[in-house]
């Protein structure tokens, strides 16, 4: 019995699947078994039509195709090509499918199409070293070209796929890989990519020098940021420009971002611009965190992994969403448990939020009068709990004055400083940037001089800082020290960090 290798997604990870078949005498039927979805069941008609329109006779036999292992639920139209090849070579005992994985959806005329699930499947298999050769369509091959240590053979239709299996000169179908055309850095023998095309530039933001400085610290060290200020003072403008000045990405991060885009049914993008997700405050808890009883789907926090999760009008998000955010913000991962499955997502995103100082928004305004009473303001502030706010590294209160509009800093200038700080962090041997350091790594990298130690002790007593708050202060101070080109954290670095703590 001949076996063709393929694979299926189980939540966000891929599982290798063997496509096997038998052809026996009896009433002509075509059956696909192996705990299959409707999309796989429908492939019978696509496969039959593709074979007949390309001059192949459908065998008048009882055909049974099995997708093994059978206890795993399988879905996707990418099994079409593997099933069609099984039938096309049903009477050829010499053919050898070897160790090539086969993926592709068949059109009725035999052309091979790409599907959103193929890229994440092959990337997942590649990370586990379970795949080294793959046969796909030309469209899919373009997406796979950046996956390292993978031989990609591409065909356009079913006839070409059959010729590929027959021929000994498989090199003629080999897809030529292309390099990513972005600016690069090489640090400790690892390559990082970055883009200098700023679609939205910080020079458009008038004034708000302190907010721009906070944004630079936020991006340089992957720190969480909340901005509080009157409507129209520039909170959302700053947030939307953050993704273009984020630190460089290595190939693994770029591929992971592309995988999340594919799973979200978006166009796959291999640019080193990090993800930016901005859900509305009316979004449900399931849409933010992911859910589903049988087929669990990713939420916004999983899709923003490695990028930015932006909450505008923060206090208007439901209390349950804000409190549930505490775990992914602290542990950088979240476990979604359902009756049928349990899925662990990485959540190494930067949390950025914007909020008004009061319900009417004019409490801090220099030109408008606030219409809220003390009870309304307090009720508005109480929507954000202390444990939630304790997980925020940078808290900034913005004014609505534009007198300091002479200093127009551009995204290019900010990005250059961030890249310098990024290089310092990587040269120290840090796997994670400062904002995501563990307790042990904080002790190793966040070293204070004697004067700074005394200041931190006084701040701990005066501001009643928790252990978590002290660690946040140290991590922000480490990033400020990197931006100031200081080897250890100085008094000035620490005082600036304390200035960004919520009072």
TrEMBL record:
One of its GO terms (molecular function) is ATP binding. Residues 201-400 form the Magnesium chelatase ChlI-like catalytic domain. InterPro entries: CHLI-like, Mg_chelat-rel, Mg_chelat-rel_C, Mg_chelatse_chII-like_cat_dom, P-loop_NTPase, Ribosomal_Su5_D2-typ_SF, Ribsml_uS5_D2-typ_fold_subgr, Sigma_54_int_dom_ATP-bd_2. Gene3D superfamilies: 3.30.230.10, P-loop containing nucleotide triphosphate hydrolases. Pfam families: ChlI, Mg_chelatase, Mg_chelatase_C. It comes from the Bacteria. Residues 410-501 form the Mg chelatase-related protein C-terminal domain. This is Magnesium chelatase-related protein. It comes from Arcobacter aquimarinus. The lineage of its organism: Bacteria, Pseudomonadati, Campylobacterota, Epsilonproteobacteria, Campylobacterales.
């Amino acid at each position: 019995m001949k076996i063709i290798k393929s694979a299926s997604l189980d939540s966000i990870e891929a599982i290798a699947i063997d496509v096997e078949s038998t052809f026996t005498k009896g009433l002509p039927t075509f059956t696909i078994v192996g705990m299959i979805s409707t999309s796989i069941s429908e492939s019978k008609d696509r496969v039959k039509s593709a074979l007949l329109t390309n001059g192949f006779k459908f065998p008048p036999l009882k055909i049974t195709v099995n997708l093994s292992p059978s206890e795993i639920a399988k879905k996707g139209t990418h099994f079409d090509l593997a099933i069609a090849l099984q039938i096309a070579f049903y009477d050829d005992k010499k053919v050898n499918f070897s160790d090539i994985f086969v993926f592709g959806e068949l059109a009725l005329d035999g052309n091979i199409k790409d599907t959103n699930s193929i890229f994440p499947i092959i990337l997942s298999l590649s990370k586990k070293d379970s795949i080294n050769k793959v046969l796909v369509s030309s469209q899919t091959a373009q997406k796979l070209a950046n996956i390292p240590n993978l031989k990609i053979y591409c065909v356009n239709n079913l006839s070409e796929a059959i010729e590929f299996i027959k021929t000994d000169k498989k090199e003629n179908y080999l897809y030529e890989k292309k390099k990513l055309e972005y600016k690069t850095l090489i640090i400790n023998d690892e390559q990082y990519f970055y883009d200098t095309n700023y679609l939205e530039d910080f020079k458009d933001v008038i004034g708000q020098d302190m907010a721009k400085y906070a944004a630079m610290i936020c991006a340089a060290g992957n720190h969480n940021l909340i901005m509080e200020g009157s409507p129209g003072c520039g909170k959302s403008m700053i947030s939307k420009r953050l993704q273009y000045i984020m630190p460089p990405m290595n190939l693994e991060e770029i591929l992971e971002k592309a995988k999340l885009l594919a799973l979200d049914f978006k166009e796959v993008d291999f640019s080193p611009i990090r993800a930016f997700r901005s859900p509305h405050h009316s979004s449900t808890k399931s849409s933010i965190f992911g859910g589903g009883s049988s087929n669990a789907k990713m939420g916004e926090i999983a899709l923003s992994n490695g990028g930015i999760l932006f909450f505008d009008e923060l206090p208007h998000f439901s209390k349950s969403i804000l409190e549930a955010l505490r775990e992914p913000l602290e542990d950088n991962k979240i476990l979604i448990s359902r009756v049928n499955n349990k899925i662990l997502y990485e959540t190494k995103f930067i949390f950025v939020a914007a909020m008004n100082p009061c319900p009417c928004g004019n409490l801090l305004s220099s030109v408008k009068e606030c219409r809220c009473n003390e009870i309304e303001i307090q009720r508005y502030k109480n929507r954000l709990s202390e444990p939630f706010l304790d997980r925020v590294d940078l808290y900034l209160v913005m004014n609505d004055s534009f007198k300091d509009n002479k200093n127009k800093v551009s995204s290019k200038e900010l990005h250059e400083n961030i890249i310098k700080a990024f290089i310092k962090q990587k040269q120290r041997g840090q796997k994670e940037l400062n904002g995501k350091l563990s307790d042990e790594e904080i002790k190793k990298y966040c070293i204070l001089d004697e004067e700074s130690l005394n200041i931190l002790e006084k701040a701990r007593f005066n501001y009643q800082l928790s252990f978590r708050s002290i660690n946040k202060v140290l991590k922000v101070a480490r990033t400020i020290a990197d931006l100031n080109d200081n080897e250890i954290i100085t008094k000035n670095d620490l005082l600036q960090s304390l200035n960004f703590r919520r009072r």
